Amino acid sequence: MNINPINEAEYYRDCTLCPRNCHANRSEGKTGYCRAGAGITAARAALHYWEEPCISGTRGSGTVFFSGCSLGCVYCQNYDISRNQAGKVISIDRLADIFLEMQEQKALNINLVTPSHYVPSIVKAIEKGKAKGLCIPVVYNSSGYESVEILKLLEGSVDIYLPDFKYFDQELSYRYSGCRDYFEIASQSLKEMVRQTGEAVLEENIMKKGVIVRHLLLPGGLSDSKKVIKYLYNTYRDTIYISIMNQYTPLEQVKEYPEINRRVTKKEYEALVDYALDLGVENGFIQEGETASESFIPAFDYQGI
After folding, report:
1. What global pTM score does this model have?
2. Residues annotated in a binding site for [4Fe-4S] cluster
3. What dotted CATH number matches 41-296?
4. Of 66, 85, 135, 300, which one is least surrounded by beta carbons within 10 A?
């Protein structure tokens, strides 16, 4: 647990919680790139069964979907909450109670989805939850575009990091996520995540501690994806798990990007998986079957909020 008390209001008055460093005064209703105010906004809190097997298991992951996003990928499958701002404002106490309610539902963990811009409040909610008996692991599920300084606030509160690692090439990251420094930032944030958790710990095939890095293959992105996988494996070997995903789903907003307005082909995905295996990746996950479907996108209907 973080031993230094956090005054969340100070962070929201001059917001630098993510690498965008907007300096927005969210406490007075100003918003920056993430489009979030000072109040925690969430759109769904429910058991989720579609994560990696060591996260969801058979009982499900207690997932809280937060509204807003500091990265804002054009192809985001959670676009309704990441950019359109669907969601309900809740208190820190209510968030702590949500954690406990999902623990009572036998969730394997608490899974915080896109939480970066609410970190000070989330740390307080975790502290309050633990004081009331929260004892299951906490998962930090993010874009990978994180401030190392802010990640340090989470040390002792987060057990499992589940970041994306989206791009190697800065022109791709700029075109689809509006930042040329994605690789640089994601590399440093991943280093901090691994420092905090160390090597992955699994008990009966369920992760209790560690890092799983997700990489989503984009249409036509095989070359860049190979560079990402090579970097991850050469840097961390079996210290982390690598999840190679084929679930890219072209939604309405990507029509302006014709090169990615299609699904990933079976040939593209198999080529990336074969490349990872040839490198020597053993601690990893792949997706099988029809995962590129809008049916895999949850309803953001305020369930559990």
Report:
1. 0.95
2. 69, 73, 76
3. 3.20.20.70
4. 135
Q: Per residue in 233-287, pLDDT tens? A: 999 999 999 999 999 999 998 999 999 999 999 999 999 999 999 999 999 999 9
Domain layout of the chain by residue ranges: 41-296
Confidence class for position 70, pLDDT limits 50, 70, 90: very high
Cross-strand pairs, 203: 206
Could you tell me which residues are annotated as the binding site? Answer: 69, 73, 76
